[in-house]
Structures are given as C-alpha cells and as structure tokens.
C-alpha cells in the first residue's frame, strides 16, 4: 500500500511539470488532472478541461506532455492518458496513444505541428515574467537606465525569477547570473529606447495570462463544482 501511494505521488510530481501552454501554469495547479491510477508499472491519468470546446491544439499538447512526463518515470512500462468530456477526446486520445502527432490525429484539418505554438506561448510567458520582475525594481526606485543594466545574478530570489529562468532554459536563452534581466526573443539585451512601451506591452501580456487563468478556474468550478476537478491526495 505504501509503495502504491509513493508511486502515485511520483506520477503527480511528474505531472507538475506539465503546463497549460496558454496559461503557463501546471495542469495540476489548475486542477485539470481528475484521476491518477497506478497498477504496478501501468499508469492511467484522466484530464478534464474547463469547457467541452477548449481549443483542440492546446488540449492535445497537454495530453501529449502528460503522457511523456509520466512515461519518463523509470518504473513505468505503460501509460494511458485520457482526455474526458471534450468534443475531440476520441481523436486526441487516439493520436497521443499512437504517438503520430497532431496532424495525424486531425488529418486534413490541422495546419502543422504544435512546436511553433508552444514557442509562441513560452515567449509570452517569458515576457510576462520579465515585466513582473522589472515592476518590482521600478517600484523600489530603479530607473529605466539602471533597469537595462540589471543582471539575473543581482536579483533577489522570487517565484517570478525562478519561472523566468525556466522559460529561458526552455527557449534556449541565457539564464545564468550574468544574463541581462531584459532580453528580446533572440536573447539580445533590450535598449533603454522604447523600454517604456515594451514594458506596457509586457504588462498587457501578463494581465491577459493571469485573467485567462482566473477565468478558466471559474469555468472549471462551474463545470465540476469546487474541488471536483482533481483527485490529488491532500489538496482538498
């Protein structure tokens, strides 16, 4: 019994690394994981989303990432991830199980694979975390001229900084202590010219991500009831 509980805990921890690409939050925190079942080396994971019509490309990414995250556990021999209560559940579940990609799951309908979409939202999240950290410095009196000189190694630990570093690693951008806080999508330092406008755009991006996350949490609660979207031990 203790071993089974430990294995289930390992699965939940693996799923903590799976993000909703649009909301940049773990599917576990969003309570999209409704069930984890472990039978020796076989694992089944059930996912639910806030609506029946959530975008199938986002849904496919989450199901595929959940499958891959669990499959990487060394003791897992077979994993099945099911998306429930979604208009494209059958196609998505079959496509992920077959490992043939999004195009094969939706022949004639999909326009290319999803890596470009994933990169687009990683860049949005990276921009939002830069703005979040930058705003903390501006509120403490740092000027724009100083802001463009700030290095990651000069910053105090924070959740936003941790997330910013992770997104840079995923995007292949500099994340070491000497890396500038403010860089563009290619990793080049951002100049002070135009910085105010860039920060305003970044703030809009951050507010949009946070607003969508709150909206989705509300929809999930409406659909399944508060606490009805997850079965993680100890969460409720």
Automatic annotation (TrEMBL):
* Every MIP18 family-like domain range: 8-81
List the InterPro entries hit by this protein, alphabetically: FSCA_dom_sf (IPR034904), MIP18-like (IPR002744)
Task: Please state what the protein is called.
Answer: Iron-sulfur cluster assembly protein
Q: What is the lineage of its organism?
A: Bacteria, Bacillati, Actinomycetota, Actinomycetes, Pseudonocardiales
């Amino acid at each position: 019994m203790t071993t089974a509980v430990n294995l289930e805990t390992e699965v939940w921890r693996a799923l903590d690394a799976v993000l909703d690409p649009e909301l940049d939050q773990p599917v576990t925190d969003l309570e999209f994981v409704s069930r984890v079942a472990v039978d020796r080396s076989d694992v089944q994971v059930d996912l639910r989303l806030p609506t029946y019509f959530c975008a199938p490309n986002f849904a496919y990414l989450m199901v595929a990432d959940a499958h891959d995250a669990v499959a990487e556990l060394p003791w897992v021999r077979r994993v099945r991830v099911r998306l429930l209560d979604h208009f494209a559940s059958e196609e998505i579940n079959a496509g992920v199980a077959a490992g043939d990609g999004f195009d094969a799951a939706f022949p004639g309908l999909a326009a290319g694979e999803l890596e470009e979409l994933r990169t687009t939202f990683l860049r949005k999240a990276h921009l939002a975390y830069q703005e979040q950290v930058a705003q903390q410095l501006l509120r403490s009196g740092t000027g724009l001229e100083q802001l463009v000189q700030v290095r990651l190694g000069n910053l105090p630990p924070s959740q936003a900084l941790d997330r910013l570093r992770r997104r840079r690693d995923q995007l292949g951008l500099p994340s070491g202590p000497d890396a500038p806080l403010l860089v563009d999508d290619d990793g080049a330092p951002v100049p002070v010219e135009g910085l105010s406008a860039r920060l305003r755009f970044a703030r809009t991006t951050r507010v949009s991500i946070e607003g969508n996350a709150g909206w989705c949490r509300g929809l999930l609660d409406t659909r399944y009831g508060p606490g009805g979207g997850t079965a993680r031990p100890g969460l409720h």
